Amino acid sequence: MRSELGAALALQLAWGADEALEEDAQDRFAEAAPAGRERAPSARAGGPAPQAAPAAPSGGAVARAEAAAAAAGTLAALREALARFDGCALRETATNLVFADGDPSAPVMLIGEGPGSEEDRAGLPFVGPSGKLLDRMLASIGLSRVRGEIYITNVLPWRPPGNRNPTDAEIAVCLPFLIRHIVLARPRLLVLAGGVPARSLLGAREGITRLRGRWRELALPELEAPIPALPTLHPAYLLRNPGAKRDAWSDLLMLRRRYDGMLPQMRQN
Ligand code: URA
Q: What pLDDT score was predicted for residue 49?
């Protein structure tokens, strides 16, 4: 019996189950919470990581996120506000808050989807296999996060357990913090890596393969001018679909051209 259980556990690990979860994604925000407490209970034991079902955002948690984000006057305060925020159940299963990496005053801000297991352990975005590819892609156009040319963050600051897709509710509750992050960092250009940042910031419905490769604009009331934003393919997608690297390369060249166009102005400031 014991060896059967051990074998079943070993099989789950081999299939990539690295979190104890329920079979179906739960919308904890939709559950009746005790007064004054919306935080989800920890996930219980179950099968392999599920794909998330879309769930409606909770107005209460989103309003609290908006208020907390708006009250943050600096990036350090925003990070603190996120660390204190208990309106997103993802923090319960995450090891670390993953806020950002690179120089916040960098001209380019790249936004990914959410931390994977290595990012969760390190507390830094894009340090796993897709991060390594991202660094090589950026290096191919002469940009680097360590030289202060790129600032990197994610839509979600906590890892969705088992790397499942985030629910609409999780995205909605994290979005006010991301928008405040953009307002405080004031990048000159945005790169939206993958469908989640592209759709959630641009309000688009199409998939990333349709959205990519064209400059859009992100207009925020707190900023004087809209920020040019380039949706592109996520490095994790490129690892699974190497044939798409050609499109990613074309997007990188678009980014480099726009960046070069800004250099004279950046040198003046
Ligand atoms: N994928 C992302 O979108 N972000 C990370 O930080 C890591 C992987």
A: 35
Show the tokens assigned to 149: 């040319």
Burial class (CB in 10 A: 0-12, 13-18, 19+), 39: middle
Contact between 108 and 143 under an 8 Å Cβ cutoff? The reply is yes
Q: Which of 97, 99, 113, 238 to mutate to test the pocket of ligand 1 (most atoms within 8 A of CB)?
A: 113
Contact assessment for residue 179 and residue 69, using Cβ atoms and an 8 Å cutoff: yes
CA–centroid distance, residue 70 to ligand 1 (Å): 25
Number of CB atoms found within 10 A of residue 70's CB: 14
pLDDT digit string (tens) for 190-235?
A: 999 999 999 999 999 999 999 999 999 999 999 999 999 999 999 9
The reply to whether ligand 1 has any atom less than 6 angstroms from the CB of 130 is yes
Pocket test for ligand 1, best of 111, 118, 126 (most atoms within 8 A of CB): 126
- Ligand 1 center–CA 108 separation, angstroms: 17
Q: Where are the beta strands (DSSP E) in the chain?
A: 101-102, 108-112, 150-154, 189-193, 216-218, 227-232
Q: With cut-offs at 50, 70 and 90, classify the pLDDT of residue 50.
A: very low
**Cα–Cα distance, 199 to 166 (Å, whole number):** 13
Q: Among 26, 19, 110, 123, which Cα is nearest to 79's? A: 123
- For the cut 50, the answer to whether the pLDDT of residue 37 exceeds it is no
Cβ of 112 closer than 6 Å to ligand 1, yes or no, is yes
Tell which one of 127, 130, 151 to mutate to probe ligand 1, the residue whose CB is within 8 A of the most ligand atoms: 130
Counting DSSP H helices and E strands in the chain, the numbers are 11, 6
Using pLDDT thresholds of 50, 70 and 90, give the confidence band for residue 23. very low
